UniProtKB/TrEMBL annotation:
Keywords: GTP-binding, Initiation factor, Nucleotide-binding, Protein biosynthesis. It comes from Thermocladium modestius. The keyword S-adenosyl-L-methionine does not apply. This is Probable translation initiation factor IF-2. The keyword Glycosyltransferase does not apply. GO terms for cellular component: cytoplasm. Function in general translation initiation by promoting the binding of the formylmethionine-tRNA to ribosomes. Seems to function along with eIF-2.
Length: 455
């Protein structure tokens, strides 16, 4: 029998739209309705079991005649403090995230970084639902704590209902400019064509039930095949590398297939190519109800199964690049195939070609891959793409291009610093270095300059 894991759901959007508060609200809701011992904590992630959601959303499920018809086990939710974190959820040109919640401020609509989220969702092919959050701020809104949106909506004045509809129409209109057809979730006929919009409030909890039910619907209709898991050697992605006192270097990873055990050999990508090491420890946060002493936050585990977030402790992990795959290998043949797979993957992302094009630098494998995808989408050729700060060598590469094609003789620095030597070199050779932490702004700045130079 095939086993299905919980989908990995990433929460994305512009700053301050309420991503973290919405996740807190969802988690607290699930905690309030859980069976003992059911909520498991993960590194920067939280797992929500379906039975808790089912009890919370019971009346809504009954309304849609869905009671007992949902086979989704639960959701593994990932908050993203910034786009780098989102980009690092990469998996060979796609994403480890199976689904996403794009949070939009109901009063602000589509904002600058919403556009960047949209690009990432589209380029990585992630189905998503829009949470039109802060619906409680709509003028005249009467809060009904923890009500389903549709129930609370029914209880509002006609004038307020009108404002809600205007808000939804405005967001749908703005999304249409990005080629996305969207509508209020209970009017969506075809999930594979239209994006559902769920008005929510992370403060009152209104709409949270609707959001979770829509996620379950998307899971069953659109991503089922991705969720079939084996029980063999695990596969995951490294999100973050950290130095932890007493442990040495640790890697926070999301495991999306199979399992990883203490003592396993794992292969990953470093700046200088693939390497492998042994898992010394696997660390998880303590379950919420066992966290009495704040100093004693973690438990050591022997095995972790997909889908899960885990902190891995092992030698040489400082070599790993965020966004790198993590591949468990349990024999020599698996090790050889993992090492060659990793080399091929590195070659696909880190470009080094002898032709005209820009030099692209980014801080992680995930951001670099997003950047190269974006540049290709804009028909901008890339001569060199690599991870790390802008160095003298990058500037020299760009100045070589200048002889052939001065309009591409630039360095684009995404989320990285420029070394002082590189700055001096850039001055001397007259090479422009564009720097930004927002991808499309970085590329826009370059394109504007490119147009000016041409005229
Ligand atoms: P970043 O992680 O910085 O990008 O922000 P975020 O998207 O995680 O937003 P966060 O959850 O930190 O919320 C930002 C602010 O908006 C906080 O002051 C929240 O109290 C407020 N806020 C979030 N959701 C709601 C909501 O539904 N209604 C109201 N009225 N305020 C909200
Ligand atoms: Mg946040």
């Amino acid at each position: 029998m095939v086993e299905y894991r919980a989908p990995i759901v990433v929460v994305v959007g512009h700053v301050d739209v309420g991503k973290t508060l919405l996740l807190d609200k969802i988690r607290n809701t699930a905690v309030a309705y859980r069976e003992p011992g059911m909520i498991t904590q993960h590194i920067g992630l939280s797992y929500l079991p379906w039975p808790a959601i089912e009890r919370y959303a019971a009346s809504l499920l009954a309304k849609f005649k869905l009671s007992g018809k949902i086979w989704v086990r639960g959701f593994l939710m990932v908050d993203t403090p910034g786009h780098a974190a989102f980009s690092n959820l990469r998996r060979r040109g796609g994403s480890v995230a199976d689904l996403a919640i794009l949070v939009i401020d109901a009063l602000e609509g589509v904002e600058e970084q919403t556009k960047e989220s949209l690009f990432l969702l589209k380029s990585r092919g992630i189905p998503f639902v829009v949470a039109a959050n802060k619906v409680d701020k709509i003028y005249g809104w009467e809060p009904h704590p923890n009500f389903a949106f549709i129930d609370s909506y029914e209880a509002q004045d006609e004038a307020v209902q009108g404002r809600v509809e205007e808000m939804i129409a405005r967001i749908a209109g703005e999304l249409a400019e990005h080629g996305i057809e969207a509508d209020r979730y209970d009017r969506v006929a075809d999930y594979s064509r239209q994006v559902p919009i769920v008005p929510t409030s992370a403060v009152t909890g209104e709409g949270v039930a609707d959001l979770l039910v829509v996620l379950a619907g998307l899971t069953q209709r659109l991503v089922r095949d991705r969720l079939a898991v084996g029980n063999g050697p695990g596969r995951g992605v490294i999100m973050e590398i950290k130095e932890e006192k007493g442990w040495g270097t640790t890697a926070d990873a999301i495991i999306y297939d199979g399992s990883v055990r203490r003592g396993d050999r794992i292969a990953a990508l470093g700046l200088d190519g693939p390497f492998n090491t042994t898992v010394r420890l696997l660390v998880m946060p303590k379950p919420l109800d066992e966290m009495r002493d704040p100093e004693d936050k973690y438990v050591f585990v022997d095995e972790v199964k997909a889908a899960a977030g885990v902190r891995v402790v092992g030698d040489s992990l400082e070599r790993a690049v965020p966004g790198s795959p993590l591949i468990v290998v349990r024999d020599e043949a698996q090790l050889r195939s993992a090492m060659s797979e990793l080399s091929a993957e590195a070659a696909a992302i880190r470009i080094e070609v002898d032709r005209s094009g820009v030099v692209a630098k980014a801080d992680t494998l995930g951001t670099l891959e997003s950047m190269v995808m974006y540049l290709r989408g804009q028909n901008i050729p890339v001569r060199r793409a690599d991870i790390g700060p802008v160095t003298r060598r990058d500037v020299i590469e760009a100045s070589v291009v200048r002889r052939r094609d001065p309009l591409y003789a630039v360095v684009l620095a995404f989320n990285v610093k420029v070394t002082p030597e590189a700055e001096v070199e850039a001055q001397q050779h007259g090479v422009r270095v564009f720097q930004n932490n927002i991808l499309y702004r970085l590329v826009d700045d370059f394109l504007n300059w490119h147009r000016e130079q041409r005229n």
